């Protein structure tokens, strides 16, 4: 499994815009090899001038992610000028080497 972490530094008060944009962006859930995506907002001090958002996307493989980033759909959803409320963006790549899943009372995966 392969995970991409996109760390966004966003102007205070604009996190909901990022969430709304992600909710309507393309149809990534139909892309072969895509497993899931999460948008997280870091809890921070109220006086900070920005919010930190993490976008985690999980893929069956690095090749599946590469196929997505090489696709026309990716270009359409990521084309254009970056919104002025996004102050910075950094991307990191991870290989999943372990993990746990929740189970029910019968020890079946949930």
Automatic annotation (TrEMBL):
Pfam families: ABM (PF03992). Keywords: Monooxygenase, Oxidoreductase. Residues 2-93 form the ABM domain. It comes from Halalkalibacter oceani. One of its GO terms (molecular function) is monooxygenase activity. This is Antibiotic biosynthesis monooxygenase. InterPro entries: ABM_dom (IPR007138), Dimeric_a/b-barrel (IPR011008), Heme-degrading_MO (IPR050404).
